[in-house]
Amino acid sequence: MVVKVYGPAYASPKRVILCLIEKGVEFETVHVDLLKGENRDPEFLKMQPFGSLPVTQDGDLTLFESRATMRYFAEKYKSQGTDLLGKTLEEKALVDNWIDVEATSFNPPIYALTFQILFAPALGLTKDEKVIQENEEKLAKVLDIYEERLSKSKYLAGDFFSLADLSHIPFTQYLVGPMGKEPMVKSRKHVSAWWDDISSRPSWAKTLQICPPPM
Amino acid sequence: MAIKVHGIALSTCTGRVLLCLLEKGLEYEIVPLDLANSAHKKQPYLSLNPFGQIPAFEDGDVQIFESRAITKYLSRKYKDTGIDLLGSSSLTETTIVDTWMEVESHQYNVPMQKIIRQMIVNPAYGIASDEKIIEEELEKLGKVLDVYEERLSKCKYLAGDFYSLADLHHVPYLVYFMRTLKSSVITSRPHVNAWWKDISSRPASVKLAESMRI
What positions does the domain GST N-terminal occupy (chain A) (predicted)? Predict the structure, then answer.
């Protein structure tokens, strides 16, 4: 039975899809329309009681939370494809450290910007300019810290590409693309070089080709 | 001492790491920080945690931050010391623990952090609480706890029939929350309440709670 990933059009499921492609694992996708509220259907809530995307099925196992799911596949297929977890206890700890930085410091402001700028209009809501400005400032401070980190280390967890970098790709693409905020990345020399590197991986081109974003 | 935690016991994020150390019975040292003078926002602390947040952690040459990454590191490195907090007997079990750790971080922690800030942190600094925020966030927390109620009606702990980091990560904020006037949010949900009674009565949890007195 082939792995199934629900909600490929959106950003969080793309963490899982990127991981599967990097590991050379076959998968299918199932479209879920958030704007129609398909994530609140009873059938969907049976799989993911919080109604968020993604959901991933691997045989009998139903998984949710993209970061736990990408770690699962990276571990399950650790002997094939790209090593995404680090080899030593210390490397693994640094990967976990920087995945959590993405989750707790990077994601909240970039998610707020994505919602306000890209999704609010589609939902018939007015953009809140105050929220946009506050979150742009927060994100800028986070990117300043990344700039310092990436001036010492090619990738976030060290000298190897890992899930910590991968986890940033889907939402950063929204930032530099449809949100029109590429200068936030380009104006920071090391962040810019890191973004050019990780976004030019074949796995990302493949992801965008098979799972185009909703806008 | 090899294991050093930079932070204070009153901090819920530091508490997460301390609780893991207590559960595993590991020796450690708390390195105090002059938070009143913003030591955590300056060097040398920033070289341990560039975000200027607590805790930061050292174990010999290993230096990391983010409390949930630290507890994972400890549970992995010291897997055979004390109880197994990661469900290490199979990848499926570990992944279910991981999933509910993510739920704690994204679904539970977001409203809970705001509630505790309004109800406990602000008053401690003489700042007025915002009742509107408290009510809004309690409503969001209630919806999350409805899912927990359903989950805990089917299994004793969040990841299954064993206590794990998925449960442990909830403890520090709940220690504070259960001292507020809104604790009925927990006590009114029978399975969540039974789960809280169980995990809060663990000796390590009792010890942590004693050190979390403002």
Answer: 1-81
